[in-house]
Amino acid sequence: MLKKLLLCLAAVLLLTACDNTGGHYKIIVTFPDNTLDGQTAYLTSYDSGDTLAQANVANKAVVLEGELEKSYMARLLLGGKRLGLVVENGEISILWADKKATGTPLNESLNALHKEIEGIEADTTANVDSIVAQRLFKAYQDNRDNGIGPWAFNYYLMYNQFTEAQIDSLLKDAPAEYRNLTRVKKALKAAHQLQVTAVGQPFTDFSNSKGESLSNHVKAGQYTLVDFWASWCGPCRREIANIKPLYEQLKDKMNFVGVAVWDKPEDTQKAIEELQVPWPVIQDAQNWTTPSDLYGISGIPHIMLIGPDGKILARGLAGQELVDCLKSLPLK
C-alpha cells in the first residue's frame, strides 16, 4: 500500500509537522444538489467517536465551526456516509462529491498521504501491507505532535500484529497523551486477545443475539474456515470471490462460515445476495464487535482456519496463501 511521491510527501509533512496551533476552525461543506437539505451533519472525534459539533444542511451547504486547543483528527458523518479530516485552525473546505477536505496545511498533507497509499495499494507486485506500515510510521514520526500523528500511529498498529510489550515499547517513545487514546487502549486489549487466540490455542466460541454460535459450524474431526468481514470492506468482498471456488471444491470435505462484523444487518444481507455467498454467515446488530474483540481483530478481512481438534491452525490468511493452505490440507 505505499511508495510514490515519497520525497515530495515527506517534504510536505515536514513543513506542516509543527502546524498544531489552536484557534478557530470553520468547516464549510457544499453539496451538488439539495438532496441532503434538512439532514444533520455531525463532526465526531476519530478516536472516541464522540460528537463534537453538529449543524443542519440548508441550501446545499452546511457550516460547522468552533474553537480548538490543538489540531485533531475527526470524521464528518452525514447521510450514512463519513469523511475523515483534520480539524485545525483556519477555513476548511469540503466539496461533498470530492470526498476530501482542503484549504488547510494538515488536510492537504493528509490528502497527499491518502493518494500515495492508493497508489501503493494498486501495485499488486509489492508487499503492500509492509510498505504501508512503514509509511504510516514515518507519517506518525513527522506529525507526532499534530492531528495526523495519533491517526497514523493507530493505523501503524493496525498494520502490525504487535504484542502488548511491543506496543508498550512504542508508547514509551510517543507523546504521553497517546497512551490515553481510546484506540490505543483498544489496540493493547486486542494484542492481549491475539495472544489468547493465537495459532495453537483452542478456538474461542461466541454467540449472537439469536443464539447462533461459532461452535454450531465447527465440527469435531473436520477443518473449518472462518471469514470475518463487512459489506463496506472492498478487500473483504475481493476475498469472498477468492474463497468461492475453494468452497465449490471443498464444501463436502470441510466447513465454511462467515462472520459479519462492524456492519448493519441490512447491508450485510444485501452484500450476501450481491456476492452470492453460499456459506452461512453469522451476524447480529449494527456494528457488532463481539467476535472481533474476542479474537483481537483490528482489520478485516481476517480469515482463520480451525483444525479437526478445535485448535486454531492459521490466522490472517488471504490470497494465494489461503489457496495454498487449503489445498495442502489432508482432506478425505
Structural class computed from helices and strand pairing:
alpha+beta
Strand content: 15-25%
Are there runs of 5+ residues with pLDDT below 50, and where? 1-18
Main pleated-sheet profile = 5 strands, mixed
The helix content is: 25-40%
Order of helices and strands: HEEEEEEEEHHHHHEHEHEHEEH
**Rg, please?**
22 Å
Query: For the residues shown, what is the average pLDDT?
Result: 92
The 3D shape can be described as globular
Distance between the termini: 39 Å
Instruction: Tell how many strands the DSSP assignment holds.
Output: 13
What does this 3D model show about the protein?
This protein is of the alpha+beta class. The chain contains 10 helices and 13 strands. It has a 5-stranded mixed beta sheet with strand order 11-10-9-12-13. β2 and β3 form a beta hairpin. The radius of gyration is 22 Å and the shape is globular. The two termini are 39 Å apart. The N terminus is likely disordered.
Give a quick precis of the structure.
By secondary structure, this protein is of the alpha+beta class. It has ten helices and 13 strands.
Please give a handful of descriptors for the protein shown.
332 residues, alpha+beta, 13 strands, 36% helix, disordered N terminus
Question: What topology does this entry show?
Answer:
Blueprint: H1 6-16, E1 23-30, E2 40-45, E3 51-56, E4 61-68, E5 72-78, E6 81-87, E7 90-95, E8 100-102, H2 105-121, H3 128-142, H4 148-158, H5 164-172, H6 182-196, E9 224-229, H7 234-250, E10 255-260, H8 265-275, E11 281-282, H9 290-295, E12 302-306, E13 312-317, H10 319-327
Parallel strand pairs: 1-7, 9-10, 10-11
Antiparallel strand pairs: 1-4, 2-3, 2-5, 5-6, 7-8, 9-12, 12-13
